[in-house]
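Researcher: I've been going back and forth with a colleague about how Peptidase inhibitor family I36 protein might be arranged in three dimensions. Neither of us has a model we trust, so I'd like an independent prediction. The organism is Actinomadura darangshiensis, in case that matters for your notes. Sequence below.
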Amino acid sequence: MNKVRITVAGMAVAGLATVLAPVAAQADTGAAAWQGSCAKGDFCVWSGKDGTGTRCAWNGDDPDWYGGSVQCKPKFLVASYWNNGYTGSYSKVKVYTLANYKYYWGTISAGKRANFWEGQPMGSHKWVN
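Model: Here is an independent structure prediction for Peptidase inhibitor family I36 protein. You can compare it with whatever you and your colleague have in mind.
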């Protein structure tokens, strides 16, 4: 009886490993898309998921993503973002949906990267404590 239980348990573990292996590979593929795509110290946004597509990147404040020092394409929609800034003073990024810091969207902590369910319009940002 014990041999049967051990055999069944072993088969269940092997089956679970087979099912989970593709999931782990997919997770690694997603992480690889982000690697090297945002310089240390920058705040980056992309038109595609997981840091793919067209990218805009800054290492300072920008009151107008479409007319400032870095210009994103007109009607650029943010599908993913990464605050690859340093920890400490001015490590968070406040993001706004319009230019000139209007309509606060949220604050992104250093090291945070994520995807939106769908592209979001954004227009300005600034580094804050």
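Researcher: What would you highlight for our discussion?
Model: I'd start with this: The two ends are 64 Å apart (CA to CA). After that, consider the following. Helices lie at 2-34.
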